Amino acid sequence: MKSNFHRSAFTLVELLVVIAIIGVLVGLLLPAVQAAREAARRMSCSNNFKQIGLGVHNYHSAYKQLPTHKSGTGLNAGVTTWGDELGNGVAQAGRTNNENLSAFVGLLPFIENQSLWEQISNPGAPDASGNGSTFPAMGTNPDDDGGFSAAPNHYGPWSEETPAFRCPSDPGKSKPPGYARINYAVCLGDTIINTSDGPTDGTLSRTSNAGQMARANCRGFFVPRQTSKFRDILDGLSNTIMMGEIITDLTDRDKRSDSRTGLTAADLSLNPTLCNDASDALRPKFWASGTSRIANGANGRRGRGLRWASGSPLYTGMTTVLPPNAATCLATEGLYDGSAIVSAGREDKNYALCPPSSRHQGGCHVLMGDGAVKFITDSIEAGGSTSPMVHRIHTAAGTVPAGVASPYGLWGSLGTRATKEVIEEEL
Question: Which region ranges are annotated with the description Disordered (predicted)?
Answer without folding.
Answer: 122-151
